[in-house]
Design brief:
This protein is of the alpha/beta class. The protein contains two helices and eight strands, in the order βαββββαβββ. The chain folds into two domains: about 60 residues, 2,3-Dihydroxybiphenyl 1,2-Dioxygenase, domain 1 (Roll), CATH 3.10.180.10; about 90 residues, 2,3-Dihydroxybiphenyl 1,2-Dioxygenase, domain 1, CATH 3.10.180. The strands form two sheets. Strands 1-4-3-2 form a four-stranded mixed sheet, covered by helices on one side. A four-stranded mixed sheet has the order 5-8-7-6, with helices on one face. The C terminus is likely disordered.
Length: about 170
């Protein structure tokens, strides 16, 4: 299956509440200065991954909970390199090793920009047929976020009807 795209570069534009804080964060996260800064506007041109990302200061347009952004690296060594730089700059919110999220086994770390936009930098090990149990929830927003998982439903003991045990070795119930 072909996974490479013929698109030259992806462009993303975000509204931010404070351009100065956002530029300071993204200078640290991208480990480079903005390519263009104008009144209420900043742009970065990233070569790897191929991305043009711009920020427009407009506090009223900032929206929470759109999801998250991610950067997949090619090797574990590359992930460690990005992680070390992010740690040195105090950006890392959470690290996960060998997590099964979004039906893939991954190592990753998370950072949040000043407006709460979540970024994951991850190394993909392999596809998985399962998610970690912490992500098994009715809430789709639980998977692939660095926050605490949503609370699970609790068992109502009064509603349980006593039956014979059905879980036996090899039955597949556990």
């Amino acid at each position: 299956m072909e996974t490479k795209s013929n698109f030259p570069k992806m462009h993303v534009s975000f509204y931010v509440s404070n351009l100065e804080k956002s530029v300071a964060f993204y200078n640290a996260f991208f480990n480079k200065s903005a390519d263009k800064i104008k009144a209420g506007y900043a742009k970065y041109i990233i070569e790897q991954p191929a991305l043009v990302i711009s920020f427009i200061e407009n506090k009223e347009r900032v929206k929470a909970n759109f999801g998250h952004l991610g950067i997949q690296v090619e090797t574990k060594a590359e992930l460690e390199q990005y992680l070390q730089v992010a740690k040195e700059k105090g950006l890392v919110e959470k690290e996960e090793i060998g997590t099964a999220c979004c039906y893939a086994v991954q190592d990753k770390f998370w950072v949040n920009d000043p407006d709460g936009v979540q970024w994951e930098v991850y190394y993909f090990h392999k596809d998985a047929e399962f998610n970690d149990p912490q992500y098994e929830s009715k809430s789709a927003e639980v998977c692939c976020t660095p926050g605490e998982p949503a609370p699970k439903d609790t068992l109502n003991v009064a509603a349980v009807v006593e039956e014979e045990a059905c879980c036996e070795p090899g039955s597949g119930c556990c």
